TrEMBL record:
MF term (GO), any: guanyl-nucleotide exchange factor activity
Protein name: F-box only protein 8
InterPro entries: F-box-like_dom_sf, F-box_dom, FBXO8_F-box, Sec7_C_sf, Sec7_dom, Sec7_dom_sf
Entry coiled-coil feature ranges: none
Described purpose of this protein according to its UniProt entry: May promote guanine-nucleotide exchange on an ARF. Promotes the activation of ARF through replacement of GDP with GTP.
One GO term (biological process): regulation of ARF protein signal transduction
Domain F-box: 68-111
High-level lineage: Eukaryota, Metazoa, Chordata, Craniata, Vertebrata
Annotated SEC7 domain residues: 133-314
Keywords from the UniProt entry: Guanine-nucleotide releasing factor
Amino acid sequence: MGQGLWRVARNQQLQHQGYSGQGYLTREHGRRIASSNVSNTSHRKQTQGGIDIYHLLKTRKSKEQEGFINLEMLPPELSFTILSYLNATDLCLASCVWQDLANDELLWQGLCKSTWGHCSIYNKNPPLGFSFRKLYMQLDEGSLTFNANPDEGVNYFMSKGILDDSPKEIAKFIFCTRTLNWKKLRIYLDERRDVLDDLVTLHNFRNQFLPNALREFFRHIHAPEERGEYLETLITKFSHRFCACNPDLMRELGLSPDAVYVLCYSLILLSIDLTSPHVKNKMSKREFIRNTRRAAQNISEDFVGHLYDNIYLIGHVAA
């Protein structure tokens, strides 16, 4: 009875102060409405500010739908710069739209020299009716022919006046070209030792660490898959060339071409040992130093240790 009277009195007090359930919900609803009005006002302001952005995007989209940019309306320097990023196939397609721009000799000259860095015809007076676009097609055709039959490919280049019949010119062409199949090139160089001699002399190994120089050498002249006379010939020629490019270093280390030859063979064997998954027990640094110094006694232990570290960290010299 006392508790019931207390609840009645308390409810009357809350109603008098405006904190009844109904009043509380009414005031809470009012707060939400006010908050909603503020947020709606803020949203309208953002919407009014975003109308300009929407119209800009819509206008830009409508302009883009009108078509591509006409390169002929741009300054010639800018048009040529844009077209210079295209390869030969895309440039031929572009010539269907912008014939005068896409057939420009400077563009095709750049494509020729970026793919085939040296040709004898570059240093000659161009014959009547010469064009770099036509030359590009002939160079591409000759490269495909070389990759099928190296002798026929070289004869094709000579018949078109692209290359002179000279081992030095052929060697320069091979050295500056990256589109030739390396397997066919290896067969060709094995048969044409005169071209191989000139190709080796084009390498500059000055101030290069021996394993790095050997990697660069085998990037241009790929090593055979098996040991044999051709591999021995390559290493011999490399050793003499490396010594010729670094005479001061050879004197300082007391190395001769024969010693460099031994080191190159050691590096190749070490590369196989460390990288082959079939070799379970890898050669240690101590074993490599001991074996190498046994074959070439004048070599310092520190130098041989650096050779091992290079192969261990960078990888195969003839990969």
